[in-house]
Amino acid sequence: MASRKGGRKPASKRKVASTTKRKAAATKKPATRKAARRKAPSGPQVLVVNMMPKALSREHNQDSEPTIAVNPANPLEIVGTSFTPDPMGGALAPIYVSRDGGNTWSLNSIVPSHARSPSGTFDISVAFGSAGGRLYGGILRDSSENFETLRSADPTAATAMQVLQSRADNDQPFAHAITKAGKDSVYIGNNDFQAQPRTATVDVYVDAAKGTPAPKKVRIEVRNTAGQDGPQVRPVAHADGTAYAAFYGWRSQTGSFPGNTLVVTSDVVVVRDDHGGSGAQAFQDLKDPGDGLAGRLVAHGVKIPFSSSGTAATGQQRLGGTLAIAVDPRPGHSGTVWLAWADQQPRSMMSIHVRRSDDRGATWSAADLLTVPNAINAALAVNNAGVVGLLYQQLLGSGATSRWSTHFRSSANGASWSDLVLANTSATSPAKLFDPYLGDYDHLVAVGADFYGIFSASNQPAAANFPSGVKYQRNADFTSGRLLALDNSTPVAVSIDPFFFKVTGIR
Amino acid sequence: MPSAEELAKDAKFVFQGTVKKLRASNVEGAAANLRTAIVHVDHLIRAVETLADYAGRDITVRLEHESTLRAGQSYVFYANGWIFAETIAVQCVKCDEATPASAAALSQHPDDAPRSLGEHEAIVQAEKADLIVSGRVSLVRLTQPELRARNLLDRGQTNEPISEHAPMWREAVIAIDAVHKGQHAGDEVVVRFPASRDVRWHKAPKFEAGQEGVFLLHKFVPAAATRGMPAEPGAGEYTAMHESDVQPLTRLAAITLAARASENR
User: Which residues, 6+ apart, have CB-to-CB distance to A495 below 8 Å?
Assistant: First the structure.
């Protein structure tokens, strides 16, 4: 296993540093086989791992748009997903599985798919119940393109995931699960075109563990739209029964999607349900003070470029907005909820905004707690100390030297933010095979005090690309900067891989 | 339930291997039991390019049923993927005792397993195709339904969903040199194809004017469950959605043989 520590600094400075002080520069050192976990005497530790197994050293697929699930009952068991086809072209797509807390990964093909699928699924998102070890997922299946809800009692086994429901005309299913009183509540945000023109939907399962339960399809958009809502519908739930969801309410549009010029004027909407989404009027407990309708308009009339294809100016990544929501998991803190969204701003293709509500979504911080220009793929999570973590990918520079810089930031209060650069990789190489280049989302979760995340980036093996260190499973030579095949000598083309990371020690 | 023969035909990892140890595994997560064995890969017959360097390595094979293999014996294994870690574990759908003749008969290109797999899949696609022609793409254009849909979309007058997975249908006109399977009147055929580079469609062949080849065409069957999009191909219109549906003229002989065989069944 090739490991690499990059960016060595004095130990006292290797903890998560403030934005202004941090420099991501790394010095070249020979590849070592030491663990890549960064340790500071009193600060957080970070582990970054390229998830592609050694057996697939010759692989050069575009493994973008990743999600992650950590089994809260056994945090050593972690599942990752991305646009990864079965390496042999079989009819089941793989998930990435770790049994040792993310240090090593293997692929286990258990997701219903189609033989010779080039990407495994057309969208996939996974979540563990908080007890019982069951894994749930939402996919757009190859080749029907149907939205399917999946369940596995043991994702490390060879058994294919069970399909709980399947329906057409849908987009971007996004899963969240929580176990209450022995029942797995599963929420899958989705953009359901069968509900046009109010398409933002959350499929709610109040007891998903048993049998083949049918979801309650909760239409969370109540206002007029431009024909539909945005594809990002993000649910989150607290153990006390409070559930939230965030979505872009599309109100009007200009330009052309096929022409790559579409800009959508949207509201950023948060809905809440105080009984886990189980009632007849689900997700209508939070009203906007402006129009009195369900769904708080946290931002009104923001502009979202919704492009059909990434370009050089956008680091090969297509744009379409980004949305993340997280609730403080501590008992008595379900009223504290964090929200991140992105919109188009002057001189910034997309700017991420982070805000917080301390009163169950009724009022929100008047101004951004954090604003990140030229950034995509926001993901949020809150740990058991009430610290919020934010993952995003920021485009730096332009032209041939442009870079995707992947950050993990955290804050206990929203006022001061730590900043950890996980990756700083070329935005021009490898060339895009398809859209999306990095993914329409990445993912972050918290279990206990620890943050676990996943992102996709260029797998060019260079110490400077991974300022927080990195561990590769696939054969790689950090001295020559080359990926190598199983024989450890044949060069392999650079591609997009999923990277796991874990940040511990944040209080 | 497909037969073992049918499963073997679809197998993506076909190799000749020697059983080294029964009831054993060398892959974490693939528990050793009565159905598993460690097998030395002597020779790859069909394999994807990513796994083209497994000859000479030990892998784990899981059989459909309790093993009747014998240690030291050589077999042809028809397998699909299972676990990929430090090395690989595969699920075997069929295995036959290997003889030099049986292994040689399966290898179109003995030193190029990915090429053998590619040709095998082209033949499978040829068997499925409704119409096979050789010729040249004379024109690529937007379809009239797609043009109408775009115009409405641009004016905000459509309820057609805007999705990053939209196919963006176009049509290619192929000037036919010869028909190799099926029947077609006229010297041109129109093929609908998705121009989108989205993950949903990027592997579907993208036709370009002047392109020559063998075209394996399939009549479009709308999914019963969907609402149907305005610009979607109609039932019976020709499409070519699989990456093997456009083949170089050098494969014409093999495709023609497969096509004739499938027509005579």
Answer: A59, A60, A61, A62, A63, A430, A458, A459
